[in-house]
Request: fold
Amino acid sequence: MGNFISKKGYEELQEQLKYLKNVKRKEISKAVGEAREHGDLRENAGYHEARKDQSMNEAKITELETKLENAEVLEDTKRANDVVSIGSKVKFKNLQYDEINEYTIVSEMEANILEKKISSETPMGSALLDAKKGETVEVHAPMGTFKIKVLEIS
Reply:
């Protein structure tokens, strides 16, 4: 797959970039200036911390700009909820552990496990793609192979 991203995900990345450039960058610049006023920079921990934050922020800005520049936005189309595709929220049962989980299948650029968004390129994401409600699929993961049953697609 290419650098696909949903329209919503693209807009979220644009907002994050805007925040980092227009708000966070100014906050850090102010902190660097204030720390600089405290004297000798060689032993000024506040200055070094502010510069580290500045460097990390600039790296994140560069990363987001690259992602957005290379992104291929997926058009929001009416998806049938009978087949898993990128953007589908899938409720499934892990048959090995008898656990029910729910994740949204997204592009690699939007993946965030804390938000229950898994990439279509992960073993689970790719196993779920094109699956239908009621279907059992095998997930070939580094920890071994296991089966999951699709319960709902929305």
